Amino acid sequence: MAQDAAELQLPSVSGWSVYLVKDASDPIVADFLDLKDPGSHLSREGSHFIVEGPEAIRLLLASRFVTQKVLLKASLLESLRPSLESADRKEACKALLLLCDAGLMERITCIPARHASAALALAERAERQRSGAATWKELLKPGPLRALALKQLDEESVGALFRVAAAFGVDVVLLDSSCGDPFHRRSVRVSMGQVLRVPCAMGSLEELLPQLLRDEDVDAVALCEDEDESCVYLDKLSTIHHRWVCLIGAEGNVDLMACCRHRVAIQKVAKGVSLGVAVASSIMLNGLAERDGRTPKVSVEEAFNRTLMEPMLPETGGERVM
After folding, report:
1. pLDDT (tens digit per residue) in 125-164
2. What is the CATH number of the domain that holds 264?
3. What does the DSSP 8-state code read for residue 316?
4. Is residue 315 part of a domain?
C-alpha cells in the first residue's frame, strides 16, 4: 500500500505529499486505473481529466487548472522537480505525488510506461467546462481577435488543432458539440498540453457563430476542400479583417458556410493529395495571421468589400484539398 514519504525517507518535494506506490490495488491510484477504459470521472461530463507526459504536465502545473495527483516513474522526479515546486498551489492541502516503477505503472494504467506515459497527472475540470457555462463572450477580448471554430472532429484532430492554434496566436477555440472532448487523454496528449493554454468554449456552432458575427464585429473564414466557385485561393486573399474566426470541418453544413464571407482553399501543385486537417489548418492560420497584421483596422464590411476586388479561383491550376 502507499506509505508516507517520511516513513520511507523518500525525497521531499515542496508543496506536495510524496508517496511510494507498491501495489496496483492501492486505492490511492484508483483514478489512474485502466486508462484505455477509464471511469466516468474522466468522461466529458466528469469532474477530472488526465494529462500525459512530462512536457504537458509542466504546462498543467503552470496553468489555471488544479492538479490533484501526479503519478510518476521515480526516475523522472528530478527533471520535473522545478515545475512541481514552482506550481502555484491555491488549494489548502498539498497535492499527491505518487512514485512507482515502470512495471507497476503499466499494471495500473494498462498503457506502456514509456517516456510520455511514465508521467501522468489528474486535474480538475473547471466547473464552467462541465456545466457548459463558459460562453464565448467571456473569452473574447477587445481589439484584434483570432478565433478557431471546429466542427465534427475527433479527439486526436481536436488536440492537433489546439497545438496549431497555440502556434499561430489563436485567442480562443470554439468547439461544436459534435467534436471530441478537448480534455480527453488523447486530445491533451496530441496537443502537447496546449489545450491547457488556449481558452475554449463548447456548444452549438449553429447558434454561436451567427451571434459572434452579429454582435462582435468578427469576420468568418471557412477552409474549403470541395470545388466551389465561391472559393478564393489563400494566396489570392490579400487582406483580412483584424477580428476573424476560421471555421474548420463544416463543409456540407449549409447554414454555417452561409455565415462565412470568405471561403478559402489552398492551392496545390499535385492533384488529389490530401494535406490532412492539421497541415491544412496550419497553412490557413499562418496565412490569416500574416494578412491580419497587414490590414488597417477597418470594419468587417470594408474588409469584405476589398476582397471583392480579388480574383476568384481560376478555371485551371492547383486543386483545393485539405
Report:
1. 975 554 444 567 778 888 999 999 999 999 999 999 999 9
2. 3.40.1280.10
3. S
4. no
